[in-house]
Inverse folding.
């Protein structure tokens, strides 16, 4: 087993090597420039996210699509994932996570724009979209045929996304949820937690995107606000260490051995690698996942929903991950025994670091962690079930959706009863594999996205309705 784990870790380090970091960060920076630094439109985007567009084509509201996407992105990556990044890359990894989020806002905008522009509908009138349809329709020839290379890009994205959904969306989340419950509720059996997860997830995902969106609209704002308030309370406890924590995060990004006595023994490359990897795991900018549900939103033009979707990266990484990072690093500075545990190799997992840090805060720390982890993980399972659902339907037809859903909840149960940290590594690998065809597609379409962004966003035409007919696809 150790040999298998070693091979998986080797693949992960290769996949997340310099080429992937260059592709990811390069795309973020390039698209930031190409879209005219679209991040400056965040106030407009936040306003649009709570504005209804009832006369526009779509299945769910813009806010419902955002909440469903946020349900999938605000997950264990925001809590345990930050702890894992700090252990592997030192406090400086938080800086790279945050920076990945800031520039990733532009990538989230661009990938959503492409997905909504090239969305289609089935015979029931349901909207379908994502990188697979952008690949097929964005490069279609004048005679209506789709180049083989474009179809390959579509299939690769859908296949990798479907596989990734079992890891990042199901097993990782249920494993993290069960671990935090069994650790903090003495006597709670893992199988009972797994069974409860299966029941609660099944009640929602078998109802389709509208039911998922309805649940997420109510759950996501509540859980996010509750967690943010909890983190602020903890930072008030640690107020003397908040500024030193910020310094450690920034300095550690460029000189890891200069912070915390070099307890982590990491390099700049490790801080960058794990910060970017966990940043992508957390906000999914460039992954191509959120545009799948954004394509179902009621929106009059692609730019409006793209603006709404990009706020997800802002809330997820720029706000929530940074708060978690500050909580963990400030608590580590305030409690020397945690640093001692890291140095002595008794604290070796992200979940252990996170639990130790939150538990050190009297009365409120552990409840905030438990409630946050359970709600975040549960919502992520719901959101990713829809992503995998749409990719499976694209690859194999609508009749394959129900078997996929059954397998999805079964994997959640298996994750609850015994899949360990290796799942995080496998999820890192599949994230990278689905990100590659998605980012390539967005870069190839960046010229069109830039032109239409100028028209809709910068020339004051955000209220203009896109009159291009939405084609209907044949059911498989």
């Amino acid at each position: 087993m150790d040999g298998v784990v070693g091979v998986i870790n080797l693949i992960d380090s290769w996949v997340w090597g310099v080429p992937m970091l260059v592709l990811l960060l390069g795309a973020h920076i390039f698209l930031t420039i190409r879209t005219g630094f679209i991040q400056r439109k965040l106030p407009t985007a936040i306003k649009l996210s709570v504005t209804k567009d009832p006369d526009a084509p779509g299945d769910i509201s813009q806010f419902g699509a955002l909440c469903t996407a946020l349900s999938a992105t605000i997950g264990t990556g925001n809590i345990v994932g930050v702890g894992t990044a700090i252990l592997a890359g030192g406090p400086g990894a938080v800086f790279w996570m945050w920076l990945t989020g800031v520039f990733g806002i532009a990538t989230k905008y661009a990938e959503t724009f492409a997905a909504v522009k090239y969305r289609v509908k089935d015979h029931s009138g349901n909207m379908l979209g994502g990188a697979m349809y952008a690949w097929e329709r964005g490069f279609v020839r004048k005679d209506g045929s789709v180049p083989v290379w474009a179809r390959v890009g579509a299939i690769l994205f859908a296949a990798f996304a479907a596989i990734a959904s079992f890891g990042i969306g199901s097993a990782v989340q249920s494993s993290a949820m069960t671990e935090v419950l069994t650790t903090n509720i003495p006597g709670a059996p893992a199988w009972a937690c797994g069974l409860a997860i299966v029941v609660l997830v099944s009640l929602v995902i078998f109802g389709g995107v509208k039911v998922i969106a309805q649940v997420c609209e109510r759950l996501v704002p509540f859980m996010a606000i509750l967690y943010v308030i909890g983190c602020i309370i903890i930072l008030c406890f640690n107020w003397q260490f908040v500024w030193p924590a910020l310094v450690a995060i920034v300095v550690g990004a460029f000189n890891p051995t200069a912070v915390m006595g070099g307890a982590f023994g990491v390099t700049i490359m490790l801080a960058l690698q794990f910060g970017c990897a966990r940043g992508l795991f957390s906000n999914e900018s460039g992954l191509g996942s959120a545009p799948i549900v954004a394509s179902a939103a009621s929106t009059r033009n692609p730019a409006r929903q793209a603006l709404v979707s990009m706020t997800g990266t802002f809330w997820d990484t720029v706000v929530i991950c940074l708060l978690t990072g500050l909580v963990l690093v400030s608590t580590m500075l305030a409690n020397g025994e945690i640093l001692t545990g890291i140095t002595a190799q008794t604290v070796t997992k992200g979940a252990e670091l996170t639990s130790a840090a939150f538990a050190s805060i009297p009365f409120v720390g552990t409840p905030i962690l438990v409630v946050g982890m359970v709600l975040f993980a549960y919502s992520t399972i719901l959101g990713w079930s829809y992503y995998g659902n749409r990719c499976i339907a694209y690859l194999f037809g609508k009749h394959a959706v129900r078997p996929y859903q059954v397998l999805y909840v079964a994997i959640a149960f298996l994750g609850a009863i015994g899949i360990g940290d290796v799942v995080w590594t496998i999820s890192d690998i599949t994230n990278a594999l689905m990100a590659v065809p998605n980012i390539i597609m967005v870069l190839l379409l960046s010229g069109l996205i830039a032109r239409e962004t100028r028209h809709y966003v910068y020339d004051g035409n955000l209220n203009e309705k896109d009159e291009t007919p939405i084609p209907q696809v044949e059911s498989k």
Q: What stands out?
A: Strands lie at 120-121, 127-128. The CA atoms of residues 117 and 468 lie 9 Å apart. The mean pLDDT is 84. The chain has one domain: 11-455.
